[in-house]
Amino acid sequence: MNNDEFKYYFHGTNITDPNIVNGVFNNGLINYRGNDMMSTMWPMEIHEGELGKKMKEYSGTKGSTVFVIKIPKYYLYPKTINGELQQPPMPIWKHLSSSGEHGDVSQLSPELVYGVYFAENDSFLPNPNYSPVHNPNGLQFDVAQIEHLMNYASEDWIRFANSRNNYLYDQLLQSDEKTHMWDDYVRIYNEHFGVESENKHNSQK
Questions:
Q1: What number of CA atoms fall less than 13 Å from residue 191's CA on the CB side?
Q2: pLDDT in the model for residue 53
Q3: How far apart are CA 141 and CA 95, in angstroms?
Q4: Per-domain boundaries in the chain
Q5: In the prediction, which pLDDT does 102 show?
Q6: pLDDT in the model for residue 204
Q7: Taking residues 31-56, what's their average pLDDT?
Q8: Region for 147 from its dihedrals, namely left if φ exceeds 0, alpha if ψ lies in -120 to 50, beta otherwise
Q9: Comparing C-alpha atoms, which of 65, 72, 69 is closest to residue 29?
Q10: What is the rounded CA–CA span in Å between residue 203 and residue 168?
Q11: Quick one: which of 35, 56, 40 has its CA closest to 98?
Q12: Mutual orientation of helices 155-163 and 143-152 as an angle, nearest 10°?
């Protein structure tokens, strides 16, 4: 896989508890500001062989632990020609709650969490569940994804992306599975990235 095909984000924290780390690996990264990556992660420009150096430099700015998010650029900023998408975007957030003690809560798909760096012992723990092709069933789009669609894509895609915010996760999941909404897109990306057609980890279970 070509490293230039991916966008990296860092999430700094002081978490070192193995149980919490495994929870992120298995269930995804929680964000208390909804479907907005930029509210909890920092975009990083990382070229081949630079990840270790960049993690060390970043650690300490937001905490000694750095979760690394690695997402195919196709999902975030798909190429369009005359409003027609050349690569279908994929939703990445499981919306958990819009009210209550913590307010607007969403969870990033665990397959997109590449791993975690611990500055205290200069070590990197890869996420065994990481995959460039995740399960999008039931998920919603990020704010940045919708903004990109509004600037470059067709009205149909814009309406579709926005409309998913009006439904609960269980409703979206049921609809997506019934209509096989993402099957063709997942197949396309499985072939592109050389991923087995049946991912071992299902983020929605």
A1: 5
A2: 96
A3: 10
A4: 3-193
A5: 64
A6: 46
A7: 95
A8: alpha
A9: 69
A10: 16
A11: 35
A12: 160
Q: What is the pLDDT of residue 202?
A: 45
Strand partners, 84: 81
CB distance 181 to 175 below 8 Å: yes
Provide the edge-to-edge strand list for the sheet that holds 93-97. 30-31, 105-108, 93-97
Write down the residue that tokens 């975030």 correspond to: 76
To the question of pTM greater than 0.90 for the whole model, the response is: yes
**Phi (first) and psi of residue 116, to 5 degrees:** -140, 140
In DSSP notation, the chain reads --GGGEEEEEEEE----HHHHHHHHHH--EETTSS-GGGT-EEE---TT-HHHHHHHHTTTS-SEEEEEEEEHHHHS--EETTEESS-----EEEEESSSTT-SEEEE-GGGEEEEEETTTTEEEE-TT--SS---TT-B--HHHHHHHHHHS-HHHHHHHHHGGGS-HHHHHHHHHHHTTTHHHHHHHHHHHT--SS-S--TT-
Tell me, what's the pLDDT at 201? 43
pLDDT above 70 (res 1): no
The average pLDDT across 75-90 equals 83
Residue with tokens 């975007």: 89
CA–CA distance, 135 with 202 (Å, rounded to integer): 6
